[in-house]
Specification:
single chain, mainly alpha
């Protein structure tokens, strides 16, 4: 015997379960962050395939996706400290190799990289901005060198 429930029935059932749990005081059910960004209170459990905002690309949903991505990167860095981009940024004052090589080796997205640089600079925003500007200059210089090198190889 197969029972098929509509999404509204699942949501109603989840809401009743949540009320029972909150009355007992044991724990709260997690809410869907995309629905929450759109002002809806939907239980996350069993909602993944049914979420109306699953493929939404509005600013709020992009922010939720970015937060998920950053959290995913932080968990990855926590679980694999050997791959940490913080290792690539250690010793900013005494640079042994060009910064762009260390940043490329780190292979993380820009928001996470900015957070790592800010942390490496002990949350000194001015110093962080200087490090980022220096990295951009070194990357620009490396790109120019690579262009010149590739032109030399072609002739």
């Amino acid at each position: 015997l197969c029972l098929v429930m509509s999404s509204s029935a699942i949501t109603a059932e989840a809401v009743s379960d949540e009320k029972n749990i909150e009355e007992n005081g044991t724990s709260k059910m997690r809410k869907c962050p995309k629905c929450k960004a759109h002002g809806q209170d939907t239980i996350w459990k069993g909602h993944k395939r049914l979420c109306p905002y699953k493929r939404c690309s509005c600013v709020r949903c992009k922010l939720v996706d970015e937060r998920r991505h950053i959290t995913k990167q932080q968990v990855r860095l926590y679980r694999n400290p050997d791959e940490s981009p913080a290792d690539a940024l250690n010793g900013l004052d005494g640079i042994q190799e060009p910064l762009e090589k260390r940043l490329n080796r780190a292979a993380v997205d820009v928001p996470t990289l900015y957070l790592v640089i800010l942390k490496a600079c002990h949350y000194d925003l001015e110093r962080s901005m200087m490090v980022i500007a220096q990295a951009k200059e070194e990357i620009k210089h490396a790109q120019e060198q690579a262009t010149l090198y590739s032109q030399m190889l072609c002739f």
